[in-house]
Specification:
By secondary structure, this protein is an alpha+beta fold. The protein has helices at about 1-15, 25-35, 60-70, 80-95, 95-105, 145-155, 180-195, 205-210, 255-265, 280-295, 320, 325-330; strands spanning about 75-80, 105-115, 120-125, 130-140, 160, 165-170, 225, 230, 250-255, 300-305, 310-315. A four-stranded mixed β-sheet has the order 1-2-4-3. The protein has a three-stranded antiparallel β-sheet with strand order 6-10-11.
Length: about 350
């Protein structure tokens, strides 16, 4: 228990550090060195092992770290069934070739955590030379829920259910489970950590790598900074969006959903979730490109009001969205060239 307490304290300090601009890179690296969940040497990492072999029971220090980070008291390691492992293997095989190359070199371990907030988490760990690797955590509920139901749950979690006549349903077909979303979305974050398709996936990486750039081909002409899009792509509710009950829960009435999605359709974002930061923009963009353009499944947002017909939004049909397709298409053609 004393060791777990130290993990909790280090975790709290680590995640509060970047909020204070006066803190130095040296202080951040010191805190990382004191946090087992952030250090590669805490894990048993074999880069030659096949990706499915990296699915392991979560160590106590990982569960403790994320319990503290998410202020959760019910997190516990989960071991997938044989049938679930077969599904996971199948979904891994469908990832873009470039993603599999990156994960082979950078993915330390995959853990399933019961009651995890959201669908998944990708977090960085550092080796002794400051090289970036990743661990992934997934919510096992996504393994047991079809993709359309899972995405409908995510979308509704961003709205206050204060009008029984208003409904939001997401149609992503019935062929896949919610784990497809979790895996592709989090794998995209992993590639972003390794190769920086956004200027930086989180502020701690900006500090650690001393990153100065403010744009990449994916974010250029779309984002001003990590959480601020160009004025022409901003909209009223974007700054108040929250999902999965985080940040005190939803703050926007479901009655405002039609207007929110109409405004979303005038941006290059594929989802409300993606509009919250350039990191989530990138991860959701790749996910829905993979779903619709590669796996040939639908992606439709159905919004029903008290009066009037159901509105159907198809983000992938937007010219602004399609303009960004070439950046993602390269993942299916190139070999890894890690930075």
């Amino acid at each position: 228990m004393p060791n777990l307490c130290r993990y909790f304290i280090a975790a709290a300090m680590l995640f509060s550090l970047t909020a204070c601009q006066s803190q130095s890179r040296a202080n951040l690296l010191r805190l990382i060195d004191e946090t087992p969940a952030k250090k590669l040497q805490s894990y048993h990492f074999d880069p030659s092992s096949p990706l499915p072999a990296r699915i392991k029971p979560a160590p106590d220090f990982v569960v403790a770290f994320w319990s503290q980070t998410d202020k959760a008291t019910d997190y516990a390691s989960y071991t997938p069934t044989d049938a679930e492992k077969g599904m996971i293997d199948g979904y891994l095989s469908k990832l873009p070739r470039h993603f599999k190359d990156v994960l082979q070199q950078r993915l330390v371990a995959v853990y399933f955590i019961e009651n995890l907030l959201g669908s998944g988490v990708t977090d960085y760990v550092l080796d002794d030379r400051g090289n970036v690797y990743v661990v992934m955590l997934f919510n096992p509920a996504a393994l047991r829920t079809d993709l359309s139901t899972w995405m409908t749950f995510r979308e509704n979690s961003s709205f206050i259910a204060d009008d029984p006549a208003a409904q939001i349903k997401i149609n992503c077909g019935t062929q896949y489970t919610g784990f497809l979303y979790s895996l592709v979305h989090e794998s995209t974050h992993a590639v972003d950590y390794a190769e920086l398709y956004t200027p930086y996936p989180e502020k701690q990486i900006k500090i650690i790598k001393q990153i100065k750039k403010i744009r990449t081909p994916f974010t250029e002409d779309v984002w001003i900074d990590m959480h601020t899009p160009r004025a022409s792509y901003d909209f009223n509710a974007r700054n108040s969006l929250s999902f999965y009950g985080a940040d005190g829960g939803p703050k926007t009435s479901i009655r405002d959903a039609p207007q929110n999605y109409k405004q979303l359709s005038e941006t290059p974002f594929v989802s409300l979730y993606g509009s919250t930061s350039w990191a989530e923009d990138f991860a959701d963009f790749v996910m829905f490109y993979h779903l619709t353009q590669v796996l040939k499944q639908p992606y439709e947002i159905h919004v029903t009001e008290k009066s009037g017909p159901t509105r159907i939004f198809r983000p992938m049909d937007s010219p602004l969205v399609q303009k960004r397709f070439p950046i993602v298409q390269k993942f299916y053609e190139r070999r890894a060239g890690l930075k």
